[in-house]
Each structure stands twice: as C-alpha cells, then as structure tokens.
Automatic annotation (TrEMBL):
Matching Pfam families: ABC_tran
Primary location recorded for the protein, binned into one broad class: membrane
UniProt-recorded name of the protein: ABC transporter domain-containing protein
A biological-process GO annotation: response to antibiotic
Record keywords: Antibiotic resistance, ATP-binding, Nucleotide-binding, Transport
Compartment(s) where it occurs, according to its Swiss-Prot or TrEMBL record: Cell membrane
Keyword Kinase carried by entry: no
GO MF terms, alphabetically ordered: ATP binding; ATP hydrolysis activity
Naturally occurring in which organism (per UniProt): Streptomyces malaysiensis
Length: 333
C-alpha cells in the first residue's frame, strides 16, 4: 500500500468577521476519511467545489496537520513526521507561485536539484521533461510572463521532474488547452507504466476522470460517498440514460409532454436542467418516449438539439446525492 488514510478529521475554525465581512462558521472539511491507494494506480478525487479535496491532499502531503486520524505514505507516518513528505512525493498544489520568478528551465532544474539529483542528472531530467511536455519554446521565459495554461504546464514539469514514487496533483490541467492536457496525461501515464509511479489526482473534469483514472473516490462535504473504478461507479446508474434537450428559445410548456418532462428536468437541475438546456436522467424506455414526444409533435419546432448518452461519472455523482451547485463545477472545469 502506497498511501493509507484512516479516520482523517480536519475542522477549520470559525472566524470572526473583520471590517464588515461576515463571520464564517467552522467547517469540517475532512469528516472521517478512510482511503487506501495501491502502488501503480492513478487514484482520483472527484467532488464539487468545497467538498474537501484540496484539504485532503494537503494532509496527504504533510502541509496541513489533521485534527485526528492517520496518514501513512510508503511506510512513513506523515502526521508525526510531515517533513518526510518532501522526500517521498512530488506535489502540485492548486496555485503555485513559488516558482514565479524563475524561468521554466530553471524551475525544472532547481526542483530536480532539490530532489537530490546531481547537476548533470538534474539538467538531463530538466531537458527531458521540457521536451516531454512541449515547453521548449517558452523554456527561457520566467513563469510570471507566461499565459495561465503555460504556467500551469511549467508547474507540472517541476512536479514531475526527478524520480518520486508518488505524485499528488491538485487539478494539474486546469486552464490548459487540449494539446497540453494530453501531454500531461501521457506524462502521468508513462510514469505509472514505466516506473510504477502512483498518482493521486484531484480533478473536476469528468471526461479525464473516466479515461485516466483506475479508481475514483467521490467526496462530498468532507466524506467519501463512493469509491470504485469508473466502470464500477457507472454501474450504479446503469439502468439510466442521460437525455439533453436544447430549446431554441423558451421551452413550449403549453405542450403537455414537455410540461411533464420539465419536472424530471428540475429533479436534475443540478446538471443544468433549467432555462434552454434541460438534462434528464431517465430509464431507457422513458427516454425513448420523451424523444418521440419532443421530435414528433408540436414541440419539435421549438427544439434546437437533443443528445442521448450513457451515464457518465457526473450522473453517478448526482445519483449519489451530490450537491447541486457542485455538479456544475464537475461538468465545466
Ligand atoms: N484555510 C481555510 N480556512 C477556512 N476554511 C477553509 C480553508 N480552506 C478551505 N476551507 C473550507 O473547507 C472546505 C473544503 O475546502 P477545499 O479547498 O478542501 O475543497 P475542494 O474540494 O478542494 O474545493 P475546490 O474544488 O473548490 O478546490 C470548504 O468549505 C472551504 O470553504
């Protein structure tokens, strides 16, 4: 086992409001979390904004001390010895400004040196990761002068450089274009395949979650509400399909079938079932009947588009009772 978490509890204390700002209540951001991550797997943490994902990974990396519970990484107790984390894992936080003044090249080289590589080895590792992530053109520029996506990519390069048996990446691809995202996932996958590196990954992006992750823990309000393979999680909602309807302007609610569907759309409001775009989760037969109703009758003129899809992790998340406002974040990211 690379990483074991038992009974993890972390409460951020209440804060008094200052200068007219409202007081904030205490938040139990980790509420009794148990997790086991095995060697060589890409383990995802999925959940809405504020679910407690970053709080969890910051405790996994020794940066935040839990109130209760145990964190063991590669045999080390990181609650008692948080300083050991730096030797064991490569961490990419949500916003990393520490490297801002350095050039991409120096950021990678310095990190490699800090991880114990000799000068020559550090330079070789630097060149390899810059090439691997397609950063060659911007290698000589300081991070603070790069675009958001390039900057993030440079931080990924620094997180990956050197040989760490565990990588903890908090939304590594946020703000990146598809080419950069693909390069990051390929780099992660290569480390897993060639070196047996284990990866713990926070992501909002459901598509990514389905393609790169071996297992996923779904977090909600500081608790793990499900943990399985993407396929295993999807089996939870296998008897449903997702129907999306897009209306040209206002939905024709005077058509009885449409008015009836609105109720189902509101039940799925979390996924955007209001306004012009409706998302419905229905048993296959009901979805077929709904399509017949909106494409065959007077509603058709008002319909712009529709799609029918098998369930995604997002549907699983909703079926598990995830919060409405969070699901949006899951889809967009
Ligand atoms: N330093 C802090 N002080 C007080 N409360 C905090 C602090 N950091 C996080 N929180 C609260 O703890 C909860 C969990 O936050 P956390 O950042 O772990 O969530 P997250 O799942 O990573 O969210 P996101 O997807 O938005 O990054 C939230 O309610 C948040 O407001």
């Amino acid at each position: 086992m690379v990483c074991t978490v038992r009974g993890l509890v972390k409460t951020y204390p209440a804060a008094r409001g200052r200068r007219g700002a409202p007081a904030t209540p205490a938040v139990r951001a980790s509420d009794g979390i148990d997790l086991d991550v095995v060697r060589g797997e890409v383990f995802g943490l999925l959940g809405p904004n504020g679910a407690g994902k970053s709080t969890l990974v910051r405790q996994l990396t020794g940066l935040l001390r839990p109130d209760e519970g145990r964190v063991r990484v590669l045999g080390h107790d990181l609650v008692r010895h948080p300083e050991r984390a730096a030797r064991l894992l490569g961490y990419l936080g949500q916003d990393s400004t520490a490297l801002d003044e350095l050039t991409v090249s120096l950021a990678a080289e310095t990190t490699a040196r800090l991880r114990g590589l000799e000068t020559r080895a550090a330079r070789a590792a630097r060149d390899a990761v810059i090439e691997e992530l397609g950063l060659g053109e911007v290698a000589g520029r300081p991070l603070k002068k790069l675009s958001g996506g390039q900057r993030r990519l440079a931080c990924v390069a620094a997180a990956l450089v050197g040989e760490r048996p565990l990588l903890v990446l908090d939304e590594p691809t946020s703000g990146m274009d598809p080419v950069a995202r693909r390069a990051v996932w390929a780099a992660v996958d290569r480390r897993r395949a060639e070196r047996g590196v284990t990866v713990v990954l926070v992501t909002h992006n459901v598509i990514e979650a389905e393609t790169v992750l071996d297992r996923v823990a779904v977090l909600d309000r500081g608790r793990v509400i499900a943990c399985d393979t993407p396929a295993g999680l999807k089996a939870l909602v296998a008897d449903e399909v997702r129907l999306e309807l897009v209306w040209r302007t206002e939905p024709p609610l005077d058509v009885p079938e449409v008015a009836a569907l609105r109720k189902a759309a509101e039940a799925c409001r979390a996924a955007g079932g209001s306004g012009r775009r409706w998302t419905l989760r229905l048993p296959p037969d009901d979805a077929r009947a709904a399509i017949a109703a909106v494409t065959g009758g007077p509603a058709f003129a008002a319909l712009d588009d529709f799609t029918l899809a098998t369930p995604s992790l997002e549907d699983v998340y909703l079926a598990l009772g995830g919060r409405a406002e969070g699901a949006d974040g899951l889809v967009k990211a």
